[in-house]
Amino acid sequence: MSLAPFLAELDGLVADAGKAFASAADAAALEAARIEFLGAAKGRLKAVQKGLSTVSKEDKPAAGKRLNEVKAQLEADFEAAKARLASAGPATKTGPQFDPTLPGKPLRVGRLHPLSQTIDELKDIMGRLGFTVADGPEIEDEWHNFEALNIPGEHPARDPLENFYLSVAQGQVESRKSKDEGPDIRRSTFDVRPLLLRSQTSTVQIRVMERQPPPVRITSLGRVYRPDAADATHYPMFHQIEGLLVDRHVTMADLKSVLRMFATSYLGKDVHIRFRPSFFPFTEPSVEADMQWSDRWIEFGGAGMVDPNVLRAVGYDPEEVSGFAFGLGIERLCMRRHGITDIREFYKNDVRFLEQF
Ligand code: DAH
After folding, report:
1. How far is 39 from 45, CA to CA, in rounded Å?
2. Are strands 139-141 and 237-247 parallel, antiparallel or unpaired?
3. Is 128 exposed, middle or buried (0-12, 13-18, 19+ CB in 10 A)?
4. What is the distance in A from the centroid of ligand 1 to the CA of 90?
């Protein structure tokens, strides 16, 4: 073989091998290229090398020199490709890179609102005292919010300015009237009883007693509504916990024991509570309950022996059974326990406040 075709063969080898090494996309492809070109037994470089013996004697030094250059070139190309794949890392095939040294994202753990936590805890305490939880609607009629609770029509508590009356039912009736429809149809088609957002959870007392005969031992916790201007101790919506126990021979002593156990369970053994004579239409006698907070007494609810008129309104016989009832402000209790001085904090949704509970 003369020199020229031998050199041409080497040039072709350099070009092919360079392309193969540069385009190897992973370690397996690179290894296949290495075996094809640099393989010790059947590599293409080896094959060309074998042709060297057929080159004429005077061309041999030049051919041998070029062969060594080509060999070095192929090895360098292979090493470069190997380095390229190593620096790209093992995840080069697909997808984003994962860097295990990056700090993790902290999970923001949510929690229950302090009032929800309080409600859960109060339910638990009442449960241990033997009271089951009852529920009632927040939109009420006057029977359950007033009448059955011995609050008659002329009572100041029923003043429209003291309550959130809803005008829906009334509006519907009037629109029918303007179409000249007769009064009987209106009465049979529409419920014209005024509705209001309940102003107290005492409504649930009536709803439970209407449904079941005595004995009754229930608690009810939920929202109540009054058109009060918001200040540090008032809010137009707040929460009450109601308790009702009706059975034979229930006395004021039972009421005081239960309230005292309830208060010490939630506020701690060292809390002082006191009872003051008071008046509620649905209890006789009635008391207001105060708790000591620093050097002051703060009212946290009302209570008393269920008025015979209330028992009669739900079909109970006041000669047979007696009962006690109480209604307490949940925000007040929670504020006393946690030293919160402004009720509005509960409703601002400020995480700096909420995350303390
Ligand atoms: N319903 C009363 C209020 O909202 C609180 C209350 C007083 C509830 C005496 C009672 C009770 O059950 O016996 O002011």
Report:
1. 8
2. unpaired
3. exposed
4. 72
Global pTM? 0.69
Residue located via tokens 């009987």: 184
Pick the closest to residue 219 from 128, 153, 310 (CA basis). Answer: 128
Q: Is the CB of residue 37 below 6 angstroms from any atom belonging to ligand 1?
A: no
Domains annotated on the chain, with CATH:
3-92 (no CATH), 114-139+199-354 (3.30.930.10)
Specify whether the CB–CB gap between 16 and 78 falls below 8 A: no
Atom 8 (ligand 1) nearest CA: 327
Is the Cβ atom of 13 under 6 angstroms away from ligand 1? no
- Cβ density class 289-320: b for 16+ within 10 Å, e for less: bbbebeeeebebbbbbbbbeebbebbebeeee
Task: Evaluate: CB of 146 within 6 angstroms of ligand 1.
Answer: no
Q: Is 304 in the pocket of ligand 1 (CB under 6 A)?
A: yes
- Ligand 1 contact, 345 CB (< 6 A): no
pLDDT tens per residue across span 187-224: 445 556 899 999 999 999 999 999 999 999 999 999 99
Q: Which atom of ligand 1 is nearest to the CA of 201?
A: 1
Ligand 1 pocket residue status of 219, Cβ below 6 Å: no
**CA angle, residues 344, 230, 195, in degrees to nearest 5:** 110
pLDDT at position 98: 85
